[in-house]
């Protein structure tokens, strides 16, 4: 799963699989194709980014596109994906389409991986009705039929196949196998690059000549992500402010002393939560925050040790400086972030009794 | 009691039918229940219709003319219920005309847009039956929509009732469809009725259509409004983002069907509940951590980032951790950590966080168990502002700067929305298929009422600006004041000097306005609420006229304990002043003037008056407000004038359960006020006008059926010989409507005293809008007045002018305010009780404005 950036689901139906896939962080492009895709009937509600998607943008871009079209039509927009899934699809294809299917999916689309699931007819006697599971099914294969078909296809287009399934049979009927059988096809890269003769080449040849767009687009959405400047800037600013607020509240509640025009904490202002021992130690080593008059300053070098901030800029102080300068206020030499030093509870500025009573005596 | 048990207990208290829930000990609801089956509802369900309830089915078959469409979440749109309450037809004097006459006409632009329909437009309502019956709404819709007869028609369908703008050929249409499981289903579509455009049902269908259109303009529905997340206003230093959007409504106005849109902002906080708890943990003592968390968080609305749903936090279960397991719908057990990893690819960072508990609203009012959802704080975002945030001046300023749109800014947003609706292909298609034409922004003519003179003790002043006349009043004596001879000041040691300075100032401004202030006894205390309280207990005796407390900080506990003690335990008027306001040098005089006036009022003084042409008129203000701490309690405030000049007031307040009728105590209060009036004036008032504020959507009928009779019975019992006449007016500060005046190709707020009593009003009501306040920045919101009972039979013009006059006599502000003074007094009183006292104030204080 981790490496699949581009995934297409053929025959996506009610889009449940797409919906589940959209949560995976690595996915950047999701495409669904269905012959019965309805524009606007459900508005893509489940697939749209939603309010949460804007508050916490994804790390990587994600676009989701739905097409109405046949899965046995060649469409250049589906070529070269990392994964194509066909969940309970092939049994709906008539013999003519089924014959075209391998050529289009394996030969033309030629993804890194294909997952095909279909009913296992050996399981059917366990159901009350002994016909097909759905009247639209053109066939239901037993394990041998499916595996033969799959192995032939794999051989032809140089994919290695593994078989699995879902839906364990009940006790005593173990011999029938899974309720649904699944074939996982992995593209055999060595073979494809090594001696790429025979069938696939013809197809490649055919593609280059024309850009095929057989399907009609019915829905498209792009997710906000940290790849986009405005979301990145806002997210980083927010994480910085959160870290600064924690420091500020410790600063206000701890002991302080005056050093020139600065007031510095006696303690380290390290938050108690959400840090490992190592991070805590590193923070304590870094330059301390301080206040001057009504302002509180947090050095960028300290800020960058906070895990979430660090992760966002990948440890790059320069990047932190440039981005924060756009959303927050920095001090004059651009080494620290400046915020107002006010306490919610009293609304009094702390300059009134900056030096803690304990230190006066 | 564990957190969960507490929630159950609350659930039981709310609905007796849920009583079983506690005992059967339903397992905590797996989050999956809300993720899997109705995730789509978060964005408004499927596009096509809104939901209608089962109830709908019944009210239809019984031929009920007011079919109740049900909004998202199963709520009836209550403002539509109010529109069905026809009041005007019962009021003979306004049946033909409810317009006033005085003042200068003014042309106003509104935020209303015309919606035109062909003359013979009809809405066709069909009942759709499936044989065999289908449970799934999604399936019902899918099967019906797949038919060619319907595919190109404008339609709204909820699974039972189908609305079309074009009639089908036959009265009964038989269709058939096939489910994915291969069952053949017979679908019978039967015409039940034809509705004219003016029908309330049509109004609701139009609202559905516009909700659909706004979604097509890439807006997200949150609550009832629509927001654009793609153009947020970001305020990173306060961890906030504001989403611009609109509140919209389509309804029947005085003469036509109109679309209303007002700009609205959604405040979203980029802070999780876990982060919020962490900051509380840092700032508070560990012993009161859980308590503080509950105090700050319970009742807040959170948004879950994974499924975009909003939940109310009803409780926090500190005993459940993310490593605990729950039962999924398929019966398997899984830990929260694993669940979120598998389902959403989310890794929880804090395995010690508790879980938030939310009671789920039951969709049907049947006897199903009250269900709860467990939410992980790390995945929940706060929406709206916490009390801590609202007390942050800097934050509120930043928010106000962004959200307080000028009339011009607002007008531009509206123009853009109208443009988007007209240009967007899908939106246009939707409107066209329904036969709707989205027209232009509407203008109308209002009137600016003549300005009022302010009567002082020996001087009549015509303020330069009615918005604020403190300058005009300088060196004028107030109408009457008792001298303050025996009083106390309590302050902290640190604030002794500022207190002395302030006292000096106070005495000087006091004598200038004719309010004699003697030197008080000053008591210095430690800086903590308990110290203040113990001083009060020791030093306040029956001779003390007033206590002033100089508060060292705006920590609520100071104010609360002082007010509680001096309002109910030992009733003495009190004045709290924040030390910080006294340190600001430049404004010392104006601060002292303001405080001197407040103190004079608290001692029963009268500041100023306006001319009241009616010789024996009592005005009453009623407000209702929720108690901050005890849920299910409301505070009802009642303030009545007790002299013909409308300068002296009688104030009562009570706490009562929400379950009892809106304001049960009104009869007692009214009788009390009449007695007081009789004592003062030796006769009963000839007329009483009641201004009722704090009315929620959908309560109009209740008001007419329960509150008006209470007031009436009190009045008729008191005045067996004479006949005191009563009018009741519902006051609403919140309304979608906005008015602008055009000036040099720009738009501005209308002048003070602008009245609108045509076109933007409702045909069923005797109502008008009045703008009686200025908005120095931002757009002014007109106040809506709806006369729901009227024995007085005053001309509409007189009613409007009287209302305007009453907006001048709120003694806490030398200027016009947005609502009549009695309402504002009642509001101030209920607010004090709901926020600080939580008890009925002593009756001894009823004759002074002790709550100012």
From TrEMBL, chain A:
It catalyses: small RNA 3'-end nucleotide + S-adenosyl-L-methionine = small RNA 3'-end 2'-O-methylnucleotide + S-adenosyl-L-homocysteine + H(+). One of its GO terms (molecular function) is metal ion binding. InterPro entries: Hen1, SAM-dependent_MTases_sf. Belongs to the methyltransferase superfamily. HEN1 family. Methyltransferase that adds a 2'-O-methyl group at the 3'-end of piRNAs, a class of 24 to 30 nucleotide RNAs that are generated by a Dicer-independent mechanism and are primarily derived from transposons and other repeated sequence elements. This probably protects the 3'-end of piRNAs from uridylation activity and subsequent degradation. Stabilization of piRNAs is essential for gametogenesis. Coiled coil: none annotated. SUPFAM superfamilies: S-adenosyl-L-methionine-dependent methyltransferases. One of its GO terms (biological process) is piRNA processing. This is Small RNA 2'-O-methyltransferase. Gene3D superfamilies: Vaccinia Virus protein VP39. GO terms for cellular component: cytoplasm; nucleus. Its cofactor is Mg(2+). Its EC number is 2.1.1.386. It comes from Ursus maritimus (Polar bear). Keywords: Acetylation, Magnesium, Metal-binding, Methyltransferase, RNA-binding, RNA-mediated gene silencing, S-adenosyl-L-methionine, Transferase.
Automatic annotation (TrEMBL), chain B:
Residues 1-46 are annotated as: Disordered. Residues 546-838 form the Piwi domain. PROSITE patterns: PAZ, PIWI. One of its GO terms (cellular component) is cytoplasm. Residues 272-384 form the PAZ domain. GO terms for molecular function: RNA binding. It comes from the Eukaryota. Its main location: cytoplasm. InterPro entries: PAZ_dom, PAZ_dom_sf, Piwi, RNaseH-like_sf, RNaseH_sf. Residues 1-11 have a biased composition (Basic residues). Belongs to the argonaute family. Piwi subfamily. This is Piwi-like protein 4. It comes from Ursus maritimus. The gene is PIWIL4.
């Amino acid at each position: 799963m981790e490496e699949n950036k581009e995934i297409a689901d053929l025959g996506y139906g009610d889009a449940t699989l797409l919906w589940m896939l959209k949560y995976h962080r690595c996915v950047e492009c999701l495409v669904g194709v269905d012959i019965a895709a309805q524009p606007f009937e459900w508005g893509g509600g489940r697939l749209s980014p939603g309010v949460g998607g804007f508050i916490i943008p994804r790390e990587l871009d994600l676009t989701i596109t739905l097409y109405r079209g046949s899965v046995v039509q060649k469409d250049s927009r589906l070529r070269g994906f990392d994964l194509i899934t066909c969940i309970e699809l092939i049994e709906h294809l008539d013999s003519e389409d089924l014959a075209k299917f391998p050529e289009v999916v394996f030969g033309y689309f030629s993804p890194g991986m294909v997952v095909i699931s279909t009913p296992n007819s050996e399981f059917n006697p366990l159901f009350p009705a002994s016909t097909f599971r759905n009247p639209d099914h053109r066939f239901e294969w037993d394990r041998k039929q499916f595996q033969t078909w799959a192995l032939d296809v794999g051989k032809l287009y140089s994919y290695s196949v593994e078989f699995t399934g879902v839906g364990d049979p009940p006790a005593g009927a173990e011999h029938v196998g899974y309720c649904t059988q699944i074939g996982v096809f992995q593209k055999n890269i060595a073979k494809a690059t090594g001696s790429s003769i025979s069938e696939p080449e013809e197809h490649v040849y055919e593609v280059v000549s024309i850009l095929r767009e057989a399907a009609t687009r019915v829905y498209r959405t792009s997710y906000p992500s940290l790849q986009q400047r405005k979301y990145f800037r806002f997210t980083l600013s927010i994480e910085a402010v959160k870290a600064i607020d924690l420091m500020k509240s410790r600063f206000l509640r701890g002991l302080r002393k005056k050093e020139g025009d600065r007031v510095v904490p006696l303690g380290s202002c390290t938050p108690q939560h959400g840090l490992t021992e190592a991070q805590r130690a590193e923070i304590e080593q870094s330059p301390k925050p301080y206040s001057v008059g009504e302002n509180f300053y947090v050095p960028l070098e300290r800020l960058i040790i906070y895990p979430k901030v660090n992760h966002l800029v990948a440890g790059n102080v320069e990047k932190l400086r440039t981005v924060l300068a756009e959303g927050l206020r920095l001090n004059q030499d651009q080494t620290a972030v400046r915020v107002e030093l006010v306490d919610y509870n009293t609304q009094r500025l702390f300059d009134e009794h900056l030096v803690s009573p304990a230190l006066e005596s | 009691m564990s957190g969960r048990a507490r929630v159950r207990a609350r659930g039981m208290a709310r609905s007796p039918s849920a009583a079983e829930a506690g005992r059967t000990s339903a397992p905590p609801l797996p989050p999956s229940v809300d993720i899997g089956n109705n995730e789509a509802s978060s964005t408004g369900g499927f596009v096509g219709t809104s939901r209608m309830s089962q109830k709908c089915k019944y009210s239809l078959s019984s031929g009920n003319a007011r079919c109740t469409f049900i909004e998202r979440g199963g709520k009836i749109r209550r403002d539509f219920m109010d529109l069905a309450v026809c009041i005007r037809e019962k009021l003979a004097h306004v049946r033909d005309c409810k317009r006033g006459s005085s003042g200068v006409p003014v042309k106003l632009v509104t935020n209303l847009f015309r919606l035109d329909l062909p003359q013979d437009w009809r809405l066709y309502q069909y009942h759709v039956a499936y044989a065999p019956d289908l449970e799934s709404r999604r399936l019902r819709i899918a099967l019906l929509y797949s038919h060619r007869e319907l595919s190109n028609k404008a339609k709204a369908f909820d699974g039972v009732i189908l609305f079309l703008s074009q009639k089908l050929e036959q009265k009964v249409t038989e269709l058939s469809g096939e489910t994915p499981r291969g069952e053949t289903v017979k679908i019978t579509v039967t015409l039940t009725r034809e509705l004219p455009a003016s029908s309330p049902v049509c109004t609701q269908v139009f609202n559905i259509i516009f909700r659909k259109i706004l979604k097509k303009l890439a807006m997200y529905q949150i609550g009832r409004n629509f927001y654009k997340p793609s153009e947020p206003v970001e305020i990173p230093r306060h961890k906030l983002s504001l989403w611009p959007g609109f509140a919209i409504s389509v309804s029947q106005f005085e003469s036509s069907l109109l679309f209303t849109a007002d700009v609205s902002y959604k405040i979203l906080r980029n802070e999780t509940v876990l982060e919020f708890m962490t900051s509380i943990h840092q700032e508070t003592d560990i012993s009161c951590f859980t308590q503080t968390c509950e105090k700050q968080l319970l009742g807040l609305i959170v948004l879950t980032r994974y499924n975009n749903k909003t939940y109310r936090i009803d409780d926090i279960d500190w005993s459940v951790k993310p490593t605990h397991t729950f039962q999924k719908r398929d019966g398997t057990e899984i830990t929260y950590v694993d669940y979120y990893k598998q389902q959403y690819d989310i890794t929880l960072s804090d395995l010690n966080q508790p879980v938030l508990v939310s009671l789920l609203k039951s969709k049907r009012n049947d006897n199903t168990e009250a269900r709860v959802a467990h939410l992980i704080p790390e995945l929940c975002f706060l929406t709206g502002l916490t009390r801590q945030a609202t007390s942050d001046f800097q934050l509120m300023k930043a928010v106000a700067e962004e959200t307080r749109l000028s009339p011009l800014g607002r007008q531009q947003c509206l123009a853009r929305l109208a443009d988007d609706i007209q240009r967007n292909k899908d939106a246009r298609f939707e409107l066209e298929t329904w036969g709707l034409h989205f027209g232009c922004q509407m203008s109308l003519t209002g009137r600016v009422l003549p300005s009022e003179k302010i009567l002082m003790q020996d001087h009549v002043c015509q303020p330069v600006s009615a918005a604020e006349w403190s300058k005009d009043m300088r060196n004028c004596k107030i109408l009457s004041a008792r001298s303050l001879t025996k009083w106390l000041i309590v302050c902290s040691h640190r604030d002794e000097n500022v207190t002395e300075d302030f006292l000096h100032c106070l005495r000087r401004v006091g004598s200038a306005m004719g309010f004699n202030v003697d030197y008080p006894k000053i008591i210095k205390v430690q800086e903590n609420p308990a110290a203040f309280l113990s001083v009060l207990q020791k030093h306040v005796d029956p001779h003390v006229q007033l206590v002033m407390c100089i508060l060292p900080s705006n920590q609520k506990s100071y104010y609360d304990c002082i007010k509680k003690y001096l309002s109910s335990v030992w009733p003495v008027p009190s004045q709290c002043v924040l030390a910080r306001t006294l340190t600001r040098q430049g404004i010392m005089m104006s601060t002292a003037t303001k405080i001197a006036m407040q103190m004079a009022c608290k001692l029963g003084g009268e500041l100023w008056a306006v001319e009241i042409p009616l010789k024996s008129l009592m005005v009453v203000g009623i407000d209702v407000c929720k108690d901050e701490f005890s849920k299910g309690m409301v505070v009802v405030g009642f303030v009545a004038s007790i002299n013909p000049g409308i300068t002296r007031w009688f104030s009562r307040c009570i706490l009562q359960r929400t379950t009892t009728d809106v304001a049960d105590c009104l009869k007692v209060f009214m009788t009390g006020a009449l007695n007081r009036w009789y004592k003062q004036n030796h006769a009963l008032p000839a007329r009483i006008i009641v201004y009722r504020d704090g009315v929620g959507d959908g309560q109009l009928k209740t008001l007419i059926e329960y509150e008006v009779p209470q007031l009436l019975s009190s009045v008729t019992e008191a005045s067996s010989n004479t006949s005191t006449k009563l009018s009741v007016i519902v006051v609403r500060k919140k309304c979608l409507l906005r008015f602008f005046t055009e000036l040099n190709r720009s738009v501005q707020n209308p002048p003070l005293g602008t009245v609108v009593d045509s076109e933007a009003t409702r045909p069923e009501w005797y109502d008008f809008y009045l703008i009686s306040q200025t908005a120095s920045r931002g757009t002014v919101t007109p106040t809506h007045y709806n006369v729901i009972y009227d024995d007085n039979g005053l001309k509409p013009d007189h009613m409007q002018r009287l209302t305007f006059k009453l907006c001048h006599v709120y003694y806490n502000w030398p200027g016009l305010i947005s609502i009549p003074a009695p309402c504002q007094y009642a509001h101030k009183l209920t607010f004090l009780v709901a926020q600080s006292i939580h008890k009925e104030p002593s009756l001894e204080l009823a004759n002074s404005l002790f709550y100012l």
